Amino acid sequence: MKTYYIHTFGCKVNRYETQLISEKFKKDGFEQALKPEEANIIIFNSCTVTAEADKECEYFLRKVSKFERSEKIFITGCLVKNKAEYIKNKFPEIQIITEKSELFSEPSKQIIRGFDKRSRAFVKIQDGCDSFCSYCIVPYVRNKLWSKPAETVIEEIKNLVNNGYPEIVLTGIHVGKWRGQQDGGVATSFVPLTLPTLIGKIVKIPSQFRIRISSVEINEIDNNLIETMKEYPDKICRHLHIPLQSGSDEILKSMNRHYDTASFEKKVKSIITELPELALTSDIITGFPGETEKHHKETCDFIKKMPFARLHIFRYSDREGTKASGFGNKVHPDEIKKRSNDLFEIDGLKRKNFLNENTGKKRKAVSIGDKKALTDNYITVKTDKKRKGIFEITVLEDSEV
Ligand code: SF4
Q1: Is the CB of 173 under 6 A from ligand 1?
Q2: What kind of fold does domain 238-356 have according to CATH?
Q3: How close is the Cα of 130 to the center of ligand 1, in Å?
Q4: What's the gap between Cα 254 and its chain centre?
């Protein structure tokens, strides 16, 4: 039997799309190889979000291009959208697939039935971004906005739940840009449905499962969403990932983020008042062009006072073609490293505080791997064995946020 191997770089959406590709290969009679050197066909689902991501992809391409067994090596994904000519010249033996959907079995529908080697399934509900944050390459490589129709999302989730996945993570490039049509209606341009309405429909699926929203912008959270989260505590994880990116208003403006720290803080406070047990996680970029010591201090002070459970800290990575790439006043890499260390320290304290607040409490969890479970509020707890479905667990001191 012919075999394929697929390697995924980057975000949850890429992991979802790898599953679509994998299901297509299996449908065509291929078997999945565990190692690239054992496969007839190798596929790279690439990422270009940072310079590091580019380097990582190139490292693997160099490695596999020496394999003798592989008849074909393909690369698809954001890196080829961004640098097709470069990849073509550097790796002429590797075939480029610019339109990834050519590898899906139903490109217009995009629906999966399982999620290889995972107990939580990611479901892509949306693609594309047109926000053009000044540092971000994504709108240049995934610019076309696309939303999966509500009925397809519901069908996909029902299938996955029936196939034993107790947690569904709603993913997208910019999830809050999901738009849907009114039931049975066609003329939708005036009142399109938004993310909270979709979530309101998903929670009504009668089976036992829960959803987690992968990431949502502060301006896209409305009362409707918070009310639904309150009303369905077992169906929607008590977790929101809201990217902040900087705690300095000047830097936020320069990043083309459409909020300031005061409005972010006000909204977060009202969310936490309504959902006091929520795990609030966030992204921060350090070393954005023009970020001075003063801006960095503003960021540190702001995140210290915010009720974050955990932060994902990224060092600014210059992406050619973005607006920020043309900005002067680039921050020296040594300084970026120093600033990221300050932020890691604050993040460590945040995680510790959140864990202390939760130690001894009972939470609903799902198994992730054989000896770990993930609570609804994003705490990883050690377990003795893998369990099915959603179960209650006590958060212990040696858990991790
Ligand atoms: S919202 Fe901003 S950071 Fe997120 S994908 Fe769009 S442009 Fe990039």
Answers
A1: yes
A2: Transcription Regulator spoIIAA (3.30.750)
A3: 8
A4: 24
